[in-house]
Amino acid sequence: MSDFSVSLNEDQLQIQKWIHDFAEDVVRPAAEEWDEREEFPWPIVEEAAKIGLYSFDFIAQAMLGDPTGLTMPVALEELFWGDAGIGLSIFGSSLAAAGIAGNGTPEQTMEWVPQCYGTPEKVQLGAFCVSEPDAGSDVSSLRTRAVYDEANDEWVLNGTKAWITNGGIADIHVVVAAVDPELKGRGQASFVVPPNTPGLSMGQKYKKHGIKASHTSEVVLDDVRIPGSCLLGGKEKLDEKLAKAREALTNPQVSSGKQPAMATFEATRPAVGAQAVGIARAAYEYALQYAQERHAFGKPIIMNQSIAFMLADMATQIEASRLMIWRASWLSKNGGGYTMGEGSMSKLMAGRTAVWVTERAIQILGGYGYTREYPVERWHRDSKIYDIFEGTEQIQQLVIARAITGLRIE
Length: 410
Description:
Helices cover 50% and strands 14% of the residues. By secondary structure, it is of the alpha+beta class. The chain has three domains: 10-116, Butyryl-Coa Dehydrogenase, subunit A, domain 1; 126-250, Butyryl-CoA Dehydrogenase, subunit A, domain 2, CATH 2.40.110; 260-405, Butyryl-CoA Dehydrogenase, subunit A, domain 3, CATH 1.20.140.10. A four-stranded antiparallel beta sheet has the order 2-3-7-6, with no helix packed on it. The chain has a three-stranded mixed beta sheet with strand order 1-4-5.
């Protein structure tokens, strides 16, 4: 176990600068174009693959090879400082990779995670498919079904997934489906759908308020047949989990295990919070520079307390959010556990901070901030999703409330 520290080591400082330079030189100059186009930024992702940022090796180093847990949030903050939509296009596959690593066997992880990224010569994508049209926050009510065909050792998947990053255009889709609907969340399992599997298609592509460079769509599963080996964790482990879940229905003292989706989200929430901090920091830095250069009534507007105090509060909220994310990331990596819902706390705090800071940035720029000639309005649009995806603000409050009370608060 490493000691918790807010001092980055030499490798982390190098990674921080490396990604910041990429964000500054490649991502930020392209941000407005791809936001307007509302298309997946293939050229930028290919550039990220060429330098090794979009790769299995980098993800393995940042997630598995770092005992502090801080490398990934540091990397994400810098990239999303450049642009959130492009950042999600580059790191969207990581959620699928986390779903595989968190629920699969070591053999499955080594087989499928590299295929979520491909190679610099042939970039591939991954998609993590949980939400549904009628099951967003309530992941225990998934209608997508997985039925086992024992004679052919195949699983048959049917259903529709909603709000899926890289949905339909990904090579690897990780699908969470109900195996035993009566058990709700405890009767679910995760499956890998290999490339070009018949029956999987893209439904509607969503036109979004923000993060418009990130591809988000429905995924339709129509009699999708996959080999038995594509069940993450394996059939034996699933049967044991289902048996425990059924026993837990009559014996509350028996643990029925974690839901596959929630196991993934618990691990990724601090990372999502780091993305929000990157957006907030971009808006704060821009507003700070603007306030120093913009003159009104014969002096820089930063000389007015109303402006200076806003910037002081913005800086404070960003720093507090970052520290919460780093601590939650360290706890997750070092076995400390989220005894008070620290992962949800960090995501809740960072999402709120991003929305508030970007709104204040618009206020400091005044009318200019409300136009698309300046990037703060885009950052404000991008920030709002961090109150919604991977658990809404209210879901994070629910997780925290249950953690601090020990009660099943509804």
